[in-house]
Amino acid sequence: MATREGTWAYRDDHDEFARTFYRRFGDGVVSSIGVGTYLGDPTDERDDAYHDAIVTALESGVNVVDTAINYRHQRSERVVGRALSDADVDRESVVVATKGGFVPFDGERPDDPGAFVGSEYLDTGIVEREDLVSGQHCIAPDFIDDQLDRSLDNLGVDTVDLYYVHNPETQLAENSREDVYDQLEAAFERLEERAAEGDLNHYGVATWEAFRVPQSHDSYLSLPEIAERARAAAKTVGNTATHFRAIQCPFNVFMADAFSVEAHEGADGAQSALWFAQDAGLNVFTSASIMQGRLAKEMPENVEARLDGESRAQRALNFARSAPGVTCSLVGTSSVEHARENVDAGRYEPLGADAFDAVFE
């Protein structure tokens, strides 16, 4: 697993970046740009492209790789594992994050997805039918247990550094908000147990809408309530402190709701997800940091003019990692060329606090 000594040594070996490129994560440090592995067809050709891009990034100064068991039908996790093995870096220097929640296929989409889910998960008792939402999503403890084991095998690691419960707001389609909080607490208890056993180092919640929408929205989940449920879970299993460390949510120039929507009750009133996370000591990993490539093609001129970087993609990345509380901005990297471009964004300073705030005035 990633260690304090390994990540700090990695930073010292890559001292050519701007001053704030590496940021604290636990007792270690991570690059403020990370590799994402969501997009792409489930093909051998895309696997090879991802492999080479991830190896390039890891050897060039980026020490965060983010994936999920359902991404590209488990292929993304497997190629991350292969890249970790092949890259000229120590395992202890790289933070590996993955997620569980969506029922994954295995390598390719089956001809009959329902039959696959039935035989692989329902008939085996891994998933109870009443815990499965929309035929594809489950956060019950036994399922999370199973998915973590599969992820460890796919990645070829003994410990996952950061394990997310994936898009728990999906459960709101068929369950009350209070029921989803209860489900999360049960999942957190299992993750606290797995942390005590050494199978994961930290855990968190990865969302698409839940943390960046108003309280009245159907997909809303309270970050303060989730943090409290994590503390309760740690207490229940006898851990002295919670291993709940991070959240993931979209943030970019066009999707700035995690900064601008004040939907989470802090000590002094309503706060945005980013401000609440910063005050609570939670790390934030942003997804969709260049909006799946859209920001490489277009960006508001008044924002772009404030940002440093040789390319529009680099400037978009530097906007995302300028926000308060952001530890790392993730960007899909499926070619060596794009990997190098993304890494090089870290040679420029992001916006300072005043300049960032001015964008929203």
From TrEMBL:
Q: Where is the NADP-dependent oxidoreductase domain?
A: 33-211
Q: Which domain of life is it from?
A: Archaea
Ranges in a coiled coil: 174-201
Q: Which InterPro entries match?
A: AKR2_Oxidoreductase, NAD(P)_OxRdtase_dom_sf, NADP_OxRdtase_dom
Q: Which Pfam families match?
A: Aldo_ket_red (PF00248)
Return the CDD domains for the record.
AKR_unchar
Keyword presence, NADP: no
Q: Which UniProt keywords apply?
A: Coiled coil
**Protein's name according to its UniProt entry:** Aldo/keto reductase
